[in-house]
Amino acid sequence: MKEYLLLLPIIFIFHDMEEVVGFCWFFRNNPWLYDRFPKVMNAYRGITNEGMAAGVYEEFIPFFGVSLLAYYFPSKIIYAFWFGIFLSLAGHFIVHIGHTIYLRKYIPSFITSVICLPVSVNILLRCTRIMTFDAVTVIAIVVSIILMMANLKLAHALAHFVNKKVQAV
Question: Which of 38, 57, 132, 144 has its CA 20 to 30 A from that of 24?
């Protein structure tokens, strides 16, 4: 299991660099997105490169932190949290691929999602052969997925906070 632990933050960084580089440009140059999906797009309205980078950095903390904890202090519960976070990241890739298919337009994050999804699924499948899935493990996995969803909300809030600070300067 130890050989896979640090791949989580590496895959996250690889994928999110495409998002940081392209998302702000994409949203500013595609006003039709705001017309078609106003409710969804309001969550991204006005996000600057600085705000996006701050949000991505905040999201990186649990990926790296849990990976380091699992690496240096291996335990069934920490492995389960790591697995749940990795599962969340794989789900994130599926969402990006789905968005691109639905919109029929390239979305920054699509290329790395296509590259990272099979790698992530392979790692997750290998880990399922190593881990034991009892009730405690499953609960820890579910809790970590819920926490990652809440963390995404926090990352959006941080991105908007940084935007306000950047615009005030």
Answer: 144
